[in-house]
Amino acid sequence: MIAGWALALGVSAYSFLTSSPERNTVASVCDAPAHGSAAGFAVGSDPGGPDGLMAGQANFILNVYNSTKRDSLAAQTATQLQQRGFVVDVVSNDPLKSNLTIAAQVWGAQSEMNELRTVAAEVPGAQIMTDSRKDPSVDLILGNRFTSLAKASSAC
């Protein structure tokens, strides 16, 4: 009996771990410059970067969070990003309740820098921040200065 439960649990765990949600696959050239620092910066603030970034194949999950008191901001923005081809997973209020005073922050692993830049190019004035996560997720946290996404032609 215990062996049967263990087998069922193992099959369920394997299925969960091997079946991941759909991921963003974006191949584009961004207007955002490449940056060598991961400490945090606004897109376009590094005068030493090249004119453009070849993002290559970005493969990531995008989460959209609202750190403001504006109702439905994350949901409306997530819908617009989905219309631009992004795969959005979590849409919610910011669980850290950061109440950002800037337009947005884009969080993810240092190894996902191209993906972070791809998302940051969608939000004028977005700040890229890295953390210690090990998965390919990217979090877009919308702040009080967020007004709209970049025009589709100027984003990635």
Please, how many helices?
3
The unreliable regions are 1-20, 26-58
Mean pLDDT: 74
Helix content: 10-25%
For the record, give the distance between the C-alpha atoms at the N and C termini, rounded to a whole number.
Answer: 54 Å
**Cα shape:** globular
Number of strands: 9
Structural class comes to alpha/beta
For this entry, what is the oligomeric state of its chains?
single chain
Number of domains: 1
- The H-and-E topology, N to C, reads as HEEEEEHEEHEE
Main sheet properties: 7 strands, mixed
Strand percentage, roughly? 25-35%
Structure notes:
It contains three helices and nine strands. The chain is α/β, with parallel strands linked by helices and 156 residues long. It has one domain. Strands 1, 3, 5, 6, 7, 8 and 9 form a seven-stranded mixed sheet that branches. The protein is globular. InterPro entries: LytR/CpsA/Psr_C. This is LytR C-terminal domain-containing protein.
What's the helix and strand layout?
Layout: H1 2-18, E1 24-26, E2 29-30, E3 41-42, E4 53-54, E5 58-66, H2 73-83, E6 88-93, E7 104-109, H3 113-120, E8 127-131, E9 137-142
Parallel strand pairs: 5-6, 5-9, 7-8
Antiparallel strand pairs: 1-5, 2-4, 3-8, 7-9
Condensed summary:
The protein contains three helices and nine strands. The chain has 156 residues and is of the alpha/beta class. Helix 2 (73-83) links the parallel strand 5 (58-66) and strand 6.
